[in-house]
Specification:
By secondary structure, the protein is mainly beta. The chain has one helix spanning about 5-20; strands at about 150, 155-160, 165-170, 175, 175-180, 185-190, 195, 205-210, 215, 220, 230, 235-240, 245-250, 255-260, 260-265, 270-275, 280-285, 290-295, 305-315, 320-330, 335-340, 345, 350-355, 360-365, 370-375, 380-385, 395-400, 415, 420, 425-430.
Length: about 425
Amino acid sequence: MSSLRNPATFAGLWLAAGCNALFGVEEPNLISEANGGEAGQPGGPGLFPSLPEAGDGGEAGEGGAAGEGDAGEAGAGGGWSQPQVPGAAGELGGGGTSEPPVGLGGAPLATGGSPAPVAAGAGGEAPSVSGGAAGAAGTTGSACISGDRYCDDDTLVTCEQGSPLEEPCPFGCESNACRPECTQPSIECRNNNQRVCGSDGRWGPEQACGDQTCVPDKGCSDCAPGDVRCNAQSGDAEQCVDGEWHADVCQSEERCVLEAGVSRCIDNVVFSLPDTTLPGGTLFDRTPDVLYAYPLRQSVGPDELVALQIGAVGAKQPANARLALYADNGAGYPGELIGRTNTLSFSGSQEVISDLTPRIRTLEPEQNYWIGIVFAPGGVPQLQCRHDDEAPGGLLVHQPFEDTIPTIFPTSEVLGDADMECNLFLRVRYRTPD
């Protein structure tokens, strides 16, 4: 409120004026009301176009008599601005013209932007009359609004406690956030190693898949897309789907085969090994209590076989015999006993077949085997054989019929049966689930 509205003040000024006239002093020109300062100016445009610009400054207050004009109100501060300039301070209220002037300048800006003093009000004529008060400083808008963020090229700018903080984005900035290196649940494969995308949007360390296969977005898996196989344990036809084996279960009378990149189950018929008959066979007498061993004319192929039965072709005359299956020892010689039979009788039959004991023996791929036979004394022991220069020949060793067939073919006192091959065979099938 102006001091001229105070009665005591008004009376004092009136007495002073009378004294001045009495002593020839020029009276001051009293100012009834002085105008306030100009409104502060708004800040510049914001960084975020959606935010409002800085507010306008307040209107100037009206001054009182004797230069005691009230200060102009502060200009309102701006929001986000570039450069960040708040509203300017209001100017001083108009005062008298004191001699010397004692009016004060406007205060500088509070924060943000460069200080900008404003002009002082003029003092009153009488030394006792003060000048106008300084206009208050314009308030500065905060540098930013906490929680706001935006992209500046490959940099993310985030507002924290009213100040902008910059964060480089190695993989670019998009939609007010740093673009991640990867997104969950991505899995990447390199050189049969996997690396997994973490919750921080970065690839984790590489991990070797070992004896598994790395499948993109699946990781270390049992198989790769497009893989097919015949399962060695179950005998099932399997194909890889999404990094896992899916089986077509082969039944006991079926077997799995791989054909044209596809695994499938087919009928698993029993067949003979060798799969052809002995050429030019003739009946030859055999000596009792002698173990004859002849190499199987056909080795096992690339697949495992199961030997179900063993047989021989002889005369229809009465004769008893036992048969045995030996594995080749790797040096072209019978080695370990694989299986054997009980006593067989040729009486009235040219071909005899018996199950092996133990039953169902596995024959390894690409291996050679030997079949042995020993006749009991009495009867007419004969075998259908061929005897020519192309026959592979066999081996023989003394072996009493009543004695147990040796588990390892004897190496002492072995005699050769040169240029001889007899009609001995196996009944086999491809291996299927046991």
